[in-house]
Amino acid sequence: MELTKLIQKRTCIRAYKDTPVTAKQLQALLEAAIMAPNACNFQSWRFYAVTNKEKINAFHPEIARIPWIDNITCLIVVAIDEAVRQKLTDRFGEQGNIFVHQDVAGAVNHILLAATDMGLGGCWVGPMQTEKCKAHLSMPDNHTPLAIVTVGTPAADVPKRDRKPLSEVVTLVE
């Protein structure tokens, strides 16, 4: 799909058909994620792809507020590697903490755009009970989850929400 049309088509999907995301689709999503820009190419992200329905269902409400959990067949938790965060903070001070969040944001955005391009949909879920998520997915201590992305085949077309005009959100500095 042409990039501009892809960006315009992408929206948050919270209702999915009961159609599993295929292994090939999941691999393509994760390959898109690791192509995202990241600080110093340190690739601070770690991905936990969950396709087990029982594991998925246990996310709501204990780990995150995902009321549409019943129709999710795939979710991806994006975590950061604390050793990489330390490497970035050693090099850049507190800015290193910002960099790992930006790394995750870029990866999530790539997942969402790739999903849209494949005819899938997705929704970025941010707030979560971090320690519960780590325990649920048996993450090592040095991985910290920052985002959850639900992915699947949209149950219906979702109209795009209006956006503010550029004149309300852009300041041109010359």
Task: Kindly describe this structure.
With 174 residues, this protein is an alpha+beta fold. Helix content is 39%, strand content 17%. The protein is built from 7 helices and 4 strands; from the N terminus they run ααβαβααβαβα. The protein has helices at residues 3-9, 23-33, 53-57, 82-92, 95-117, 130-136, 166-169; strands spanning 45-50, 74-81, 121-125, 143-152. Strands 1-2-4-3 form a 4-stranded antiparallel beta sheet, sandwiched between helices. α2 (23-33) packs antiparallel against α5. The longest helix is centred in the middle third of the chain and has 23 residues, at 95-117. The N and C termini lie far apart (34 Å). The mean pLDDT is 96.
| Strands in their spatial order, largest beta sheet | 1-2-4-3
Quick one: overall form? Answer: globular
Largest sheet: 4 strands, antiparallel
Would you count the extended β strands for me?
A: 4
List SSEs in N-to-C order. HHEHEHHEHEH
Helices, strands, pairings?
Blueprint: H1 3-9, H2 23-33, E1 45-50, H3 53-57, E2 74-81, H4 82-92, H5 95-117, E3 121-125, H6 130-136, E4 143-152, H7 166-169
Helix pairs in contact: 2-5, 4-5
What are the defining features of this structure?
174 residues; 7 helices; alpha+beta; four-stranded antiparallel beta sheet
